[in-house]
Amino acid sequence: VQLQASGGGLVLAGGSLRLSCAASGTIFGINTMGWYRQAPGNQRELVATISTDGDTNYGDSVKDRFAISSNGAKNTVYLQMNSLKSEDTGVYFCFAIRFHENYWGQGTLVTVSS
Length: 114
Known about the structure:
The structure is a single chain. The protein has no helices and eleven strands. It has strands at 2-6, 9-12, 17-24, 30-38, 45-51, 56-58, 66-70, 76-81, 90-98, 101-104, 108-113. Strands 2, 4, 5, 6, 9, 10 and 11 form a seven-stranded mixed sheet that branches. A four-stranded antiparallel sheet has the order 1-3-8-7, with no helix packed on it. Strand 5 and strand 6 form a beta hairpin. The termini are far apart.
């Protein structure tokens, strides 16, 4: 499984960004995709996940501001990030779970300027 993330960048506090993550290769069996993020000096933390059934899960710090979705083929996930705060700054890593194996993308940098 290869994961290609895109959509990061610089945005002012209060603004929005949309991240995308496209899975390719042997994608049969992927049951969950989502995002973690890591800020400098911090541990990686969960942002959001979505299952092939459409069930979603969010980290407490992003609930009500971020929304995760997937395309019809379920090989691409999107993270709509609204009302961004400076503490949302970090590298966002896309991941996928396939038959209990975890796969990671290369990360995309999100910088929120206040």
